[in-house]
Amino acid sequence: MANVSFNEKIYFERIFQMENGYVLDFTNRTFQDFILDTINIDIYHRYDYESKAKLLRRVISDFDNVTVGKLLMELLDYKRLHLDISNDEKETFYKCVDIANRLMGKSVRAKLAPVEKHSNNDFDFKRNLEALIKVSKLNNSQERGYTFEKYLYDFFKSNQLSPRESFKLIGEQIDGSFSFKNEIYLLEAKWTKKLVDKGELVKFNEKVSSKSRFTRGFFISFSGYSEEALATFNSGRSVNIVLMTVQELVISLEREIDFNIVLEKKIRALAEEGKFYKNIIELF
Q1: What CA–CA distance (Å, rounded) separates 136 from 63?
Q2: Which residues are paired to 243 by β-bridges?
Q3: Strand 183-190 and strand 177-180: pairing?
Q4: Ranges for the Restriction endonuclease type IV Mrr domain (predicted)?
Q5: DSSP classification of residue 25
Q6: How far is CA 97 from CA 33, 149, 258, in A?
Q7: What does the CA dihedral 268, 269, 270, 275 come to, rounded to 10 degrees?
Q8: Helices then strands (H, E): number in the chain?
Q9: DSSP label at 47?
Q10: Of 91, 223, 234, 284, most Cβ neighbours within 10 A?
Q11: Is residue 259 within 8 Å of residue 283, measured between CB atoms?
Q12: Residues sharing a CB contact under 8 Å with residue 233, sequence separation 6 or more, in sequence order
């Protein structure tokens, strides 16, 4: 039985919208497939037919901490990727992430908070968050894209990353660059409704690789990345870029996490695990 208290279970009941017997937007078939893929358990073969909410409660009661923690974290990640997290849900969502991390034996973020605070006393998290929200409210896509690039320049400068504004080379446009630990990172910034596809990642990776073996790339997207891109982008090629979403940037600002620490953890995930996109929720 997983070590989840009554009050902790209530958090998951809320975030997974289980009050009417459902779990998020899963059908019986997709719920069965999701659990089988995540923890290798055929839920309808193991248990008699019940509502999805009751089945999830039974898994939490019957299995060990690590198994339950992994399933809960994957469900949270599913919600983050495919469904909305409202402002009212954010606190509950983060509490659930902390609980799932604890079950899997990872450090709870709240305990790490003192060492994850920004080391630059001049950095204003609230002001940067408000400025990013203003960018999101711009209706003209061209103006929004230009303003986002300008925002990132100021953001990198405030984080002491020696940024350069967008520039043109023969046959290509670079959205900007910055320096991190004596390495140069080219910037690609996308604020569009369309998910970034594999072709765009391949193109940017090749742009980065063509400069020198010392050059790296940082890709930040408003809408995120397609599942196909994340699953197959690194197949047969050397990856020199790390990915982030605007949503992750918002999370780092809301929780006052040093961007330099976020960037370092993402780079280490690529270097040590081959993961070019590891979400901030998994990093902290």
Answers
A1: 42
A2: 219
A3: antiparallel
A4: 144-250
A5: T
A6: 22, 31, 19
A7: 180
A8: 14, 6
A9: S
A10: 284
A11: no
A12: 198, 201, 202, 205, 239, 276
H/E segment holding residue 221:
strand 216-221
Contact 23/31 with Cβ under 8 angstroms?
yes
Q: Which residue type does 154 have?
A: D
Question: Which distant-in-sequence residues (6+ apart) come within 8 Å of 261 by Cβ?
Answer: 116
Domain ranges of the chain: 6-106, 125-283
pTM given for the model? 0.62
Q: What is the pLDDT of residues 188-245, one digit of tens each?
A: 999 988 999 999 999 999 999 998 878 999 999 999 999 999 999 999 889 999 999 9
Identify the burial level of 81 via C-beta atoms within 10 angstroms of its C-beta, where 0-12 means exposed, 13-18 middle and 19 or more buried: middle
Q: How far apart are the first and last CA of the chain?
A: 25
Assigned token pair, 19: 């009050």
Which parts of the chain have pLDDT scores under 50? 107-119
DSSP-derived secondary structure for 158-191: HTT---B--EEETTEEE--EEEETTEEEEEEEE-
CA atoms of 96 and 93, how far apart (whole Å): 5
The letter for the amino acid at 263 is L
Q: Provide the 10 A C-beta neighbour count for residue 203.
A: 12
> In angstroms, what is the C-alpha Rg of the chain?
20
HEC assignment per residue over 238-255: CCCEEEEEHHHHHHHHHC
**What residue type is 148 in one-letter code?**
F
pLDDT for residue 114: 39
Q: Is 224 exposed, middle or buried (0-12, 13-18, 19+ CB in 10 A)?
A: buried
